[in-house]
Amino acid sequence: MTAPxxxxxxxxxxxxxxAAPLAACLESLGGLxxxxxxxxxxxxxxxxxxxxxxxxxxxxxxxxxxxxxxxxLLRSPRNEGSYVPYNLAEAQxxxxxxxxxxxxxxxxxxxxxxxxxxxxxDEGRVAVVGARSVYFxxxxxxxxxxxxxxxxxxxxGHADPDEPxxxxxxxxxxxxxxxxxxxxxxxxDPRFFINHWEVDYCLRLKQRSWRIRYEPRAVAxxxxxxxxxxxxxxxxxxxRNKLLVxxxxxxxxxxxxAAVVAAAGAAARIAADALATSSxxxxxxxxxxxxxxxxxxxxxxxxxxS
Length: 306
What we know:
Spore Coat Polysaccharide Biosynthesis Protein SpsA, Chain A
């Protein structure tokens, strides 16, 4: 996409102790075929304890001769997590920008990612366009595609077509956000801490007649483990925040019914996992997450509030 016709895009990357993968992510951005004069790159350092900040400064020093609109490192005094930094930084991004390309620090992108995402976003009333996330070491396997949510049961479904489609949600490791839509609903809901926050964001936008699109031809290689990271903490948020989505998104026809169905399904999965793994810590964390979800607890574990 040439400079005169290319909308201004802010590439935004929150990072915490991500020195090596972030350096590789920035290196991959150097291969983008999008107009650099219409693209700024902003890294948010969540008070990293490693040399993330230094590595970013070094990378930006090398990139300044490449014609980028702007290269900035924002340093936070504390770790704000993976998505709250979007809310804090949006007003500091170039005010002329139409879109935010949000990236996880452990992602490497194909050269045409931004061009393809912007082309889909320009179709009209598109708030979010998600890329096809593949496993870094297995690029033939899709990690995340198009997500769908049943309005009656809150059951999640997924699809990975060959052409762009409308869907209910996409994952935020590599996605393009329309800034007008972002401001319209006040950004991301900070009560999730982790897990399901992308689903909540997309569903709230759909309630305002915005579209969510998936572009499978835009590919991002993600350095994650197949099946995802499993830990007691993550299981807690997975079960708790599924019920939080039902309460906050306004998407479900009968929220109480959807919560009952979701809770029953969660209880069955927890029981099955308990038999399969025999992990007392995981089972306890899962049950606590389900219970806290039923009683409306939000925020970070240990600081949760009703």
